[in-house]
Amino acid sequence: MKGWATALCMNDEASFDRFVASTVPPFAHLLKPSHMGAQPPGSPASRTGSDMAEAVCAQLGLPPGTLRD
Questions:
Q1: CA atoms within 13 A on the CB side of 45
Q2: Are 9 and 16 a contacting pair, CB within 8 Å?
Q3: pLDDT band of 11, cuts 50, 70, 90
Q4: Residue 69: which of 51, 55, 44, 50 has the closest Cα?
Q5: Residue 8's Cα: distance from chain center in Å?
Q6: Which residues contact residue 15 at a Cβ distance below 8 angstroms, ignoring those fewer than 6 apart?
Q7: What's the chain's Rg over C-alpha atoms?
Q8: Contact 20, 30 (CB under 8 A)
Q9: What is the DSSP string of 8-29?
Q10: Is-contact 8 27, C-beta < 8 A?
Q11: The whole model's pTM is what?
């Protein structure tokens, strides 16, 4: 079905959108935003701050993680 769905989307995106909207239960997850890009709360990556905060720390000569949101 993947090949058919890909071809339909490439040829007629509106038809593909109607198809996905009309087949709610099995394909509803395709319309939900993914949370996979975020770090879990309290993880080391979320505690260290953003890239911008790290860049500011480096420019000011502060240790990484000094700035907090």
A1: 4
A2: yes
A3: very high
A4: 50
A5: 25
A6: 8
A7: 21
A8: yes
A9: HHHH-HHHHHHHHHHSHHHHGG
A10: no
A11: 0.35
The Cα–Cα gap between 13 and 15 comes to: 5
Q: Among all chains, which residue has been given the structure tokens 């997850």?
A: 29
Residue pair 53/45 in contact (Cβ under 8 Å)? The answer is: no
pLDDT tens by residue, 16-63:
888 877 876 776 677 777 666 666 665 555 555 577 888 888 888 888
At CA 67, angle to CA 44 and CA 58, rounded to 5?
Answer: 95
- Label residue 36 left, alpha or beta by phi (over 0 means left) and psi (-120 to 50 means alpha): alpha
3-state secondary structure of 69: coil
